[in-house]
Amino acid sequence: MKLLSRFLLMTRKHWGTLFVAVLGIIGAALLNLVTPEIVRRLIASLSSPANSTSGLPGSGSASGSMTPALLLAFVLILIGAYLVRALCRFISMYVSHLAAWRFVGELTLMVYGKLQQLSLRYFQDKQTGQLMSRMVNDTRQLEVLVAHAIPDLISNVVVIVGVAVMMFRINPFLALITLIPVPFVVFAGSVFSRKVAPLFRINQEVLGDLNGTLQDNLSGMKEIQAFNQEDNEYSKMEKVCVHYSYVNIRANFANAIFHPGVEFITSLGTVIVVGVGGYLAMRQQMALSDIVGFLLYLSLFYQPLAILARLVEDTQVAYAGGARVFEVLDAESDILEAPDAIRLGRTKGAVSFEKVSFHYNAGEDVLKNVSFSVKPGQMIALVGPTGVGKTTIVSLMERFYDPVEGTVSIDGTDIRNVTLNSLRDQISIVLQDVFLFNGSIADNIAYGMGRDDIISHEEIIRAAKIAHADGFISRMPNGYQTLVGERGVRLSGGQKQRIAIARAILRDTPILILDEATSAVDTETESEIRSAIESIAGTRTVVVIAHRLSTVMNADTILVLDEGEITERGNHRDLLALDGLYAKLCRAQWTGENGQFFDGQIV
Q1: CA–CA separation, 470 vs 381, rounded Å?
Q2: Which helix (H) or strand (E) is 559 found in, with range?
Q3: Distance between CA 126 and CA 148 in Å, rounded?
Q4: What is the C-alpha to C-alpha distance for residues 358 and 360, in angstroms, rounded to an integer?
Q5: Which of 84, 276, 309, 350 is most buried by its number of CB atoms within 10 A?
Q6: Is there a domain that residue 27 lies in?
Q7: Could you report the per-residue pLDDT of 292-312, keeping only the tens digit for each?
C-alpha cells in the first residue's frame, strides 16, 4: 500500500488527464447499465397479451403494445447508446494511455537522472544490463497500472455497484442469491495475490539477469570470437534463457489455475439465475422479460469480477517492476553536496592532498596518509607498479569518491565544500580506457563543452592539431564528420586517445589529468603527444599517470607510489640519484626498450 500511495503521488501531474479518462470510463459503465434495461423493456413490449405477466414487478405496462414507431425508437436508442459508449471508451482508452506513457517516459528519465547522481561506488557491483532493465522494462510495467489497472478498477466498481442496484430493483431475492459466489472470488484473489506476487518479482529479476548477460556478451563479442568461446557463451546464454522461460511458466501456471477457477465460480451465478429464475417463471412469479434482463445484468456483474481478478495479476506485475524502480530512486549516493556548498569560479589550479587515506573495502587500504601539493601551472607525475593507488588519487580529485581520512583541496578550498558541477568544471580528464560516443569525431571532441557554448569548427581543428590528431582525421573520407561507431569501434586505440586528448584540450580547464593517455600509441605518436603536453605546460596544472616513464621525464615533480604510500618524490634526475624504485623502473623500461641507459643515467 505504501508503494501504491507513493506511486499515485508521483502521477499527480497527470491527475487532470486521468480524471478525463475516468469520466469516459464512468460514462461507458453507465451506458452498459442502460442497454440491458432497454432490451428488457423491448421484450416486455413484444410479449403478447396472452403470454404477458402484466402486473408483475418489472413487467411494464406496455406489454403487448408494441408499434413500429416504438420499435424504431428502441432501435435508435440502442444505436445512440452504443455510439456514445464507443465514444466514451475511446476517450478512456486513449486518454489513459496518453497519461500512462507520458508518465513512463518521465519515470524512465527520472531513473536515468538518479543514476547520473549516484557515485561510482554504486556501479561497482551492478551490471549495465540490469540497470537498463530497471530503467526500461520495469518502468514499462507501470504503464499497465496507469492505463489499465486503475481505470479498470474504477469502471468495474461502478459497474458492479450499478448492476447490483438494477438486479435488486428487478428481483431482490434472486439478486441476493446471485451474490453467493462473490466471497469465494474475493478469497481466491487474496490467496492468488499472496502466493503469486513473489513469482512476478522473480520474473523481473531474471529478466534483468538476462539483459545483463546479453549486454556483456554483445559488448565482448570481439573477445568471444577471438578466444573461440562461441559454444561456451551460447551454453551460458541457453541456461539463462531456459531459467527465464521456467520462471515465467511457473507464474503462468498459477494464472492458468486462478483465472479458470474464478470463471467457474462466477458461472455458478448464471446457473443459480437459470434455475431459480426459471422456477419463479414457471410459477408465474417472474416475467420472462425480467429473467432476460436479469441474465444480461448478471453477465455484466460477473464480468467485472473476473476482470478484477485479472487486475490482481496486472497489479502484481506492476508492483514488482515498481519495487525495482524505487530501489534505484531510493539509492543514496555516498558523494553528497554540503547544504551550504559554494560554487567555484575558475580556479588557478593549485591542488593539495593532506594526509589522505582511502579504501574501497574496509580493511583493504588503497592509499595511506598521502600528502602532496601542486602549484598552478606545474606538471606532476604519478608513477609506480599497477594497483598502488595512482588512478584512485585522480578519482578523489574529481570527487568520484571521498577520502576516508584527510582533505583534498583546490586553491585552498576543501572540495567537499563546493558543488560537484563547479568542481568538475575545473578538471578535464583523459582516461586509459577511452570512451567515445556513437557520433562524429567533431561531436566527440566538442563533447566536454556546455550545451550553451558555441564551438567553431576552427576551435575543434586547433585542439585536434595540438593533440596530433588532425593528420589522421583529415585523411578520413568524411574528415571530422566521420562516425566513430559504438565506443569508437571504427578507430584504433591510439586514434581514440588522441581524440580524447583533443577533447580535454578544447575544454580548457585549469587542471588536466592524463591517466595513461599514451598507453595505446606507438613511440612516434607518444613523442608527438608528449610534445603537445609540454606545449601546454605552464598554462594549466597537469597531472600525469604513466607506466611509460618517457612521458613524465620533464614533470616538475614525480611522485612514486608503492603499497598505497608515496615512497619517493622529486624530479627525474633527483629520483635517479636516489637509486630507488623509480630508478629501478627506469632501468627495466629503457634498457629493455631502446638501450638509452648510460653510466647510471637515463637520458
Answers
A1: 27
A2: strand 557-562
A3: 32
A4: 7
A5: 309
A6: yes
A7: 778 788 777 777 776 776 677
Is there a contact between 525 and 494 (Cβ–Cβ < 8 Å)? yes
Q: Is residue 439 part of a domain?
A: no
Range of the domain at 314: 2-329
Largest CA distance in the chain: 130
* Statement to judge: residues 285 and 374 lie in one domain: no
Residue 72 is assigned to a structural domain of this protein: yes
Residue 473 domain flag? no
Give the range among 287-296, 413-422, 564-573 with minimum mean pLDDT. 287-296
Q: Which three cell numbers stand for residue 321?
A: 517492476
Provide DSSP, 408-435: EEETTEEGGGB-HHHHHTTEEEE-SS--
Task: Select the highest-mean-pLDDT range: 408-422, 434-448, 501-515.
Answer: 408-422
Based on the fold, state whether residues 318 and 390 are members of the same structural domain.
no
Distance CA 495, CA 499 (A): 6
Q: Are residues 10 and 111 in the same domain?
A: yes
Q: First and final CA of the chain: distance in angstroms? A: 73
User: Are 296 and 39 in contact, with CB atoms under 8 Å apart?
Assistant: yes
Residue type, 512: L
Highest-scoring range by mean pLDDT, 59-73, 143-157, 187-201: 143-157
Cell of 141: 510495467
* Count of CA atoms in the C-beta half-sphere (13 A) of 102: 14
DSSP 259-323: HHHHHHHHHHHHHHIIIIIHHHHHTTSS-HHHHHHHHHHHHHHHHHHHHHHHHHHHHHHHHHHHH
For the chain, how many helices (H) and strands (E)?
A: 22, 12
Cell of 52: 404477458
Confidence (pLDDT) at 50:
42
* Sheet of 427-430, strand order: 427-430, 511-515, 541-545, 379-383, 557-562, 565-570
In terms of domains, do 264 and 231 share one?
A: yes
CB-based contacts of 205, cutoff 8 Å, min separation 6: 324
